[in-house]
Predict the 3D structure of the following.
Amino acid sequence: MFELFRAGGPLMWPLLLCSIVALTIVVERFWALSATSVAPVDLVAKIKDLIATAEVDADQLKLVANHSPLGEILAAGIKNITHGRDAMKESIEEAGRHVVHELGRYLNALGTIAVICPLIGLLGTVIGMIRVFTVITVSGVGDPGILSGGISEALITTATGLSIGIPALMFHRYFKGRVNRLTVRLEQHAVHLVDAIRAGEEDDSG
């Protein structure tokens, strides 16, 4: 393996760095974008119980906001519970924009890696072929061993760049779709809580 790495030339080092960064992002995003950590199914029910028992205070709101991305959104709405539905929805939307931005963290970097790795591999191919033609110009084509270094560099860097770029692109698309699905789920939970709170207030007033 080390011999292949060395035969690929100096461009193997940025490819190695890209592969490490991409793997780190993939592992971190799999953990961060799990449905249970982003939008726990029982959180809305717990908050409704707290509101019903009038136990929502600043400390409780802080715990809810730190609980999960969904908790951050719901806590923003509860802070404005006395200001009416429109104020709650506005604060929820503002918090939601921040949460969605956080859910997409590092995905631009992963997408960039997916694009540049094949290009780095292509650059390695060009450099390797230039080396081959330089050797041919100086020594002719009589000794295949002299040419093999440049050809190996061209093929290895291309294969390595594609081997990193293709999975990175697949995971980038997958995580983009996952963020979109989680965003819809967060919106549904937030709307459900707002409607439940306002319905409860209307029942009380009636």
